[in-house]
Amino acid sequence: MKSFFITTAIDYANGSPHLGHAYEKVLTDVIARFRRQMGDRVHFLTGTDEHGQKVQQSARKQGVEPQQFVDNISEEFRGLCKRLNISNDDFIRTTDERHKKVVRRILQQLFDKGEIYKADYKGFYSTRQEQFLQEKDRQPDGAWPEIYGEVVEITESNYFFKLGKYQQWLIDYLKANEDFVFPRYRQKQVLEFLKDPINDLCISRPKERLSWGIPLPFDENYVTYVWFDALINYYSAVEGTDWWPASFHVIGKDILVPAHAVYWPIMLKAADIPLPKALLAHGWWSVSGSKMSKSTGNVIKPLDFADQFGVDALRYFLIREMNVGQDSDFSPDQFLVRYTSELANNLGNLVNRTLNMTNRFAGGLVPEPAELDKPEQDLRALWDKTRDEVLQLCEGFQFHLGLERTFTFITATNAYIELRAPWKLGKSTEAKDQALLRTSLATMAEALRCAVGLLTAVMPETSQKIYGVLGYQPGSVWSDELVWGNKLVGKKVAETAILFPRPEKPATEKK
RNA sequence: GCCAGAGUAGCUCAGUGGUAGAGCAGAGGACUCAUAAGCCUUUGGUCGCCGGUUCAAUCCCGGCCUCUGGCACCA
Question: Which nucleotide is the nearest neighbour of A192, by CA and C1'?
Fold first, then answer.
């Protein structure tokens, strides 16, 4: 059995979850569910990144201890996962003892090997913002912006990790492993970045400046800063198991270069730990055409949509709309279009009319089909083709196309029903028509049951509901569910089911 | 500036060296099992601009314009 270990980036515990967080979780979840369905042994990790200056500052602002502060935020992110039906097997927090232990051990190991050294860093420091400033932070006239307050040039000793030493090795590695980063053009960007010499990485902060972090094992006057803390979560969570190396780190495109594609491989290489097999960098969501940002206030709260339309409608939209790797736009109007025309009208209505006809013309029991005629054979052939294509597309993370094909099949099922018009057959007493009626009812139910199998990873709750109203309990082997058969014959279906109710008012009018 | 991607129907996008396609929206129709849903038909495009190669280019080449993204830390 193939092992598949997949991770999301861990979220920084300094603010509430927004659409981007939700997307990354859902995308990774769909991949994880798909792999499980394909028979892989899957481990799915997510979590929160809880140290650092911003957390320390936010906690102080609220007048609480950092630990209490991150406890709250971390809880919020775990709530998001639960609400979105994320099937993660583990949730790591960088404040977990299991994590801190591994971070300190790796740091010590690299220090002993001479991969970490101490040096002076000289730069302009803002006491108000408690950070070093870059030349790019200056205004055109050379002055420092107001927000930084007093800026002084200071010298500070810190520890550095020898990144530069491994630059050529990484370039060679990426050239030899063209599929390290998905999509491919992103890997080119990494190589592009590596054309210029890279500096060694400052990995510490003096404790008096930043206390909320993991102390360096070889110098307790410092804590480790950002990357050695955050990135190692992927490894620390599974150390001692057989899950490492990870199959995929799913991340946002913003943290690909340099963090995940440069720092992380080099850190692992230096520590003699195998590299993850691949990185998957996804795009960003804009909102109604403009960049989502806290300052403009157009942050989408994903759970509002989940609350109003159901979790699966949100999951469906995120996966249907985004071509993995590229950017997409989220607008309430577009959401409503997909919700109404695809989920409610196309799928939801198919479910409901199938139940209604089965009740009206067959006493609520799915009948046995007679011999399959051309329309039935055509639909079944389309099913085989659809299934094969969709599986292929999902293997390549083309979930949006997979859903499109699946819905093409659903539309074809609706068209099949029109062709047979069971409501007309139901009025006839001739044996031939009655046989055709039974066949058409059985066919539409079976088509629906098959289609649901391809929707499960994206809409787990809806899939369960549809199976439920068909009186059906799927078996444990997913691929069997994708085979056209007579699995529903004799099943007692529900009276009615409104899976995706039409919204009363447009979402845009909702306050 | 450099690198990458993109400019095709009102909108979102697919596409091939040989008279342009889908979904949604719009229009018309037949039907009635159904969430005023579904089905059928249909309006609609100088395929960014200018040259070139070719019997023939939206698709190949050159140039230009525009947009988006990346270029050291917001998923």
Answer: B3
Measured from Cα to the C1' atom, the residue closest to B11 is A334
A361 CA to B50 C1', in Å? 66
Kindly list the domain boundaries of chain A, sorted by start residue: 332-481
pLDDT tens-digit series, residues A191-214: 888 888 888 888 998 988 888 999
pLDDT at A269: 94
Question: Is the CB of residue A175 inside 7 Å of nucleic acid strand B?
Answer: no
Residue A508 scores a pLDDT above 50: no
Please provide the size of chain A in residues: 511
Strand duo A215-216 + A3-8: pairing: unpaired
- CB atoms under 10 Å from CB of A333, counted, come to 11
A9 beta carbon to strand B: under 7 Å: yes
Q: Which nucleotides of B are covered by protein (CB under 7 A)?
A: 3-5, 14, 23-25, 31-40, 68-75
- What ipTM was reported for this prediction? 0.86
Residue A266: CB less than 7 A from any atom in strand B:
no
Estimate to the nearest angstrom the gap between the alpha carbon of A205 and the chain centroid: 32
Is pLDDT at A416 greater than 50 in this prediction? yes
- Alpha carbon dihedral A446, A449, A454, A457, in 10-degree steps, equals -170
Q: Which nucleotide is nearest to A404 (CA to C1')?
A: B23
pTM of the model: 0.92
Is residue A431 within 8 Å of A356, Cβ to Cβ? no
What is the C-alpha to C-alpha distance for residues A464 and A484, in angstroms, rounded to an integer? Answer: 18
**pLDDT for residue A293:** 61
Question: Rounded to an integer, what distance in angstroms lies between the CA atom of residue A348 and that of residue A313?
Answer: 11
In chain A, what are the helix, strand and coil shares in percent, each to the nearest 5? 50, 15, 35
Here the tokens at position A27 are 């995308």
- For chain A, the straight-line distance linking the first and the last C-alpha, in angstroms and rounded, comes to 50
Residues of A (244-263) placing their beta carbon closer than 7 angstroms to any atom of strand B are 251-255, 257-259
Q: Give distance CA A192 / C1' B1 (Å).
A: 15
**Alpha-carbon distance values, A198 to A64, A267, A404 (Å):** 39, 14, 43
- Is strand B within 7 Å of residue A185 (CB)? yes
Give the CA diameter of chain A.
Answer: 96
Tell me which amino acid residue A385 is.
Answer: K
Query: Would you say the C-beta of A469 is within 7 Å of strand B?
Result: no
Residue whose structure tokens are 């591994």: A102
Residue A392 CB neighbour total at 10 angstroms: 13
For residue A340, count CB atoms less than 10 angstroms from its CB and return exposed for 0-12, middle for 13-18, buried for 19 or more: middle
Q: A128 vs A325, which has greater pLDDT?
A: A325
Q: In the CATH hierarchy, which fold is given to the domain comprising A332-481?
A: Isoleucyl-tRNA Synthetase; Domain 1 (1.10.730)
Q: What is the band of A382 on the pLDDT scale with cuts at 50, 70, 90? A: very high
Query: Per-residue pLDDT averaged across A444-462, rounded?
Result: 96
